[in-house]
Design brief:
The complex is a heterodimer of chains A (175) and B (156). Chain A has 175 residues and is an alpha/beta fold. Chain A folds into two domains: 30 residues; 122 residues, CBS-domain, CATH 3.10.580.10. In chain A, helix 4 links the parallel strand 1 and strand 2. A four-stranded mixed beta sheet of chain B has the order 1-2-3-4. Chain B starts with a helix and ends in a 16-residue tail after the last helix. Classes of the chains: A alpha/beta (175), B alpha/beta (156). Chains A and B meet through helix 2, helix 4, helix 5, strand 5 and helix 7 of A and helix 1, helix 3, helix 4, helix 5 and helix 6 of B.
């Protein structure tokens, strides 16, 4: 039985987590839905798309937009000295750039990124990403290592793709 | 009832169809983008005068078909939309729409009636929220940031 707070495996039926002391009674009151169980067992790193687009804060936004277009990326991670400092998404392009692109395209991407985005580590259960997407309204959750170096992104679409690929019972035909 | 059971009988209608932003094909690209920005939506549906679906224009298209190509935003939205896009019906199952959105890599799908009149939009975000609604307890109880425990437990 996995503690939702610290991810430690506890003996089935434990009332509190042996590691962090969190209340586990609620976790134990029901069987997990198979999809939820899968998402809680699978880690962020399993849903990351390979080859994330990582750019520097001073890169001209025009270059970043072009690379997002060419590479088929919905967002770019902005890193300074290999530490995540921001995220720049298609939504930022629409909201901040599209009305006056010719005048703004030479400015650095840091002027348009979302600074200090909430991120998760690669070994965090995917359920944490869902929580951020649902409660926080994020569409992209950056994935970092324990030194805040960017490893990739998990998007709402990636979560859906992960479910479709990894919960085969979901799509079996029924008689 | 489990999520798997619900996926087989819940429909797009049960998901809650979002009202669409619609524009005419001859409207300028700038008007479509303005409308998306004002309403914070990721797409507009392009309709004919009687409300039949002609195309879809998304925030991805703003990048790839407008800004990167240097296209004038005074041009018509029909020149940059995806014409005759894949669409879904209010009575289609959630399972079906999930599979089609995933196979197509879509973030939005138009919802139309039997005569191809636009009814609304269904988004991948709405679908993920639908999934979360089936198992809220553990997820909503999760802290905003996971607290890592120490490497080994006492006595372990």
């Amino acid at each position: 039985m996995l503690c939702p707070a610290c991810e430690t495996e506890n003996f089935p039926g434990s009332d509190v987590c042996g590691e962090c002391g969190s209340d586990l009674s609620a976790v134990e009151t029901r069987a997990l839905d198979p999809v939820e169980k899968r998402l809680h067992e699978d880690r962020m790193k399993k849903a990351i798309k390979p080859n994330p687009l990582i750019v520097s804060p001073l890169d001209p936004v025009e270059t970043v937009v072009s690379r997002m277009s060419e590479d088929g990326q919905n967002c770019a991670l902005v890193a300074f000295e290999n530490v995540l400092v921001g995220i720049f998404t298609e939504r930022d392009v629409m909201r901040k750039l599209s009305a006056d692109y010719d005048n703004l395209k030479g400015a650095p991407v840091r002027d348009f990124m979302t600074p200090a985005p909430e991120s998760l580590e690669a070994d965090t259960p995917l359920t944490f990403a869902l929580n951020k997407m649902s409660v926080g309204g994020f569409r992209h959750v950056p994935v970092v290592n324990d030194e805040q170096q960017p490893l990739g992104v998990v998007s709402v679409k990636d979560v859906l793709a992960h479910i479709v690929a990894n919960v085969p019972d979901l799509f079996q035909a029924r008689s | 009832m489990s999520l798997v059971d619900n996926l087989h009988h819940d429909t797009v209608r049960d998901l809650g169809i979002e009202p669409p932003i619609t524009v005419a094909g001859e409207d300028p690209i700038s008007a479509a983008i303005d409308a998306m920005r004002r309403k914070s939506k990721g797409c507009v549906l392009v309709c004919d005068p009687v409300g039949k679906l002609l195309g879809i224009f998304t925030e991805r298209d703003i990048l790839t078909r407008v800004l990167v190509t240097g296209k004038s935003q005074e041009d018509s939205v029909s020149s940059v939309m995806t014409a005759s896009p894949d669409s879904t019906h209010p009575g289609d199952t959630v399972r079906d729409v999930i599979r089609r959105m995933n196979d197509g890599g879509y973030r939005h799908m138009a919802v139309v009636d039997d005569e191809n009149h636009v009814v609304g939009v269904v988004s991948v975000r709405r679908i993920v929220n639908y999934l979360i609604e089936h198992f809220p307890m553990a997820i909503y109880n999760l802290p905003q940031s996971p607290q890592k425990g120490s490497a080994s437990r006492e006595g372990a």
